[in-house]
């Protein structure tokens, strides 16, 4: 029996487009991308913003319940990493962070066919732990 992995599409946007996608997603310069995402019931989520949301949630609810808190906080406080993650976006489909391969494949195909200078990189990831970097281990306080 084979494992049915889930998938996720991530984009890297060129700096002016990344800033636009975060602050003015309805901007006409993003129309081709946003129209494509709408057709796929997909939405962009900036990875830096997702990390910042995680840190805020952990601090509200008790960091001891959030195993990635320390790594995530260090990441968003590091200027070089902040710059990197401000240009990185995860695509949510139907509100989900991971989704079936068929949805990911269709979205990836259409994104690769899109003629735009907004997108600098497209990646399809899966939930197989063997394919994912693992966060660093920290001693518990």
List the helices and strands and how they pair.
Elements: E1 7-13, H1 15-23, H2 31-39, E2 42-46, H3 47-61, H4 69-77, H5 79-86, E3 88-93, H6 101-113, E4 119-126
Segments where pLDDT lies below 50 for 5+ residues? none
Ends apart, CA distance between termini = 41 Å
Our estimate of the beta-strand percent is 15-25%
Structural class: alpha+beta
Shape: globular
**How does CATH name the architecture?**
2-Layer Sandwich
Radius of gyration: 16 Å
Oligomer: single chain
Percent of residues in helical segments? Answer: 40-55%
Please tell me the overall pLDDT.
93
Secondary-structure element series: EHHEHHHEHE
CATH class: Alpha Beta
Number of strands: 4
Largest sheet: 4 strands, antiparallel
**Integer count of domains:** 1
Q: Any idea of the CATH topology? A: Alpha-Beta Plaits
Count every helix, treating DSSP H or I runs of 4 or more residues as helices: 6
Give, in spatial order, the strands making up the sheet with the most strands.
2-3-1-4
């Amino acid at each position: 029996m084979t494992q049915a992995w889930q998938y996720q599409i991530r984009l890297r946007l060129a700096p002016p487009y990344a800033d636009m996608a975060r602050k003015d997603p309805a901007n006409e310069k993003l129309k081709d991308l946003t129209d494509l995402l709408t057709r796929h019931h997909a939405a962009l989520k900036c990875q830096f913003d997702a990390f910042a949301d995680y840190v805020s949630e952990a601090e509200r609810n008790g960091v001891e319940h959030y195993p990635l808190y320390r790594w995530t906080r260090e990441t968003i406080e590091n200027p070089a990493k902040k710059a990197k993650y401000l240009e990185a976006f995860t695509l949510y489909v139907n509100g989900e962070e991971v989704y079936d391969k068929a949805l990911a494949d269709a979205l990836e195909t259409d994104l690769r066919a899109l003629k735009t200078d907004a997108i600098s990189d497209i990646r399809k990831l899966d939930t197989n732990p063997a394919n994912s970097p693992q966060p660093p281990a920290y001693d518990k306080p």
